[in-house]
Design brief:
The chain has one domain (about 5-130). Helix content is about 45%, strand content about 20%. It is built from four helices and four strands, in the order ααααββββ. A hairpin with a 2-residue loop joins strand 1 (about 90-100) and strand 2. Helix 1 (about 5-25) crosses helix 4 (about 70-85). The radius of gyration is 15 Å and the shape is globular.
Length: about 140
């Protein structure tokens, strides 16, 4: 598959998944979303590690567009769904941090021990919950 074709396919899938994730966050109860996110993938593909980078890139590119306006939770859910679809084990993490007098919340996705999506400052966030299983 050509590089341009692969890029386009990931971007199209990211558009669809981000739209679905934004609707889910808005209209579906959180308990159902996180119950879905907590299920393990049907199959584990140990040889698809490079696809995680493509997925993170596509979700980040589309999520940053002004017409999409995806916040961290829909982006994390979309990336997790795209990873699960390919058999890549991942987990959605939710955390909070105090910034001055305010409380800030953030969601990110972890794949293994080293790959983190949406995790710009995850070290400053206290992890409250994680959904999904990462196999080692």
């Amino acid at each position: 598959m050509k590089l341009a074709t692969r890029r386009r396919a990931y971007l199209h899938e990211a558009i669809f998944m981000l739209a679905i994730a934004r609707l889910a966050v808005r209209f579906v109860p959180a308990s159902r979303i996180f119950a879905w996110a907590d299920r393990p993938p049907r199959r584990i593909n140990h040889f698809a590690a490079d696809e995680a980078d493509w997925i993170f890139w596509a979700v980040e590119c589309i999520g940053a567009k002004p017409w999409m306006g995806a916040l961290c939770l829909p982006s994390a859910i979309a990336a997790h769904a795209m990873l699960r679809r390919r058999g890549i084990a991942s987990r959605v993490c939710l955390g909070v941090a105090r910034k001055g007098d305010e409380l800030a919340a953030h969601a990110w996705v972890e794949v293994g021990e080293s790959k983190v999506f949406n995790g710009v400052e995850t070290h400053s966030f206290t992890r409250l919950a994680e959904f999904g299983a990462v196999t080692r």
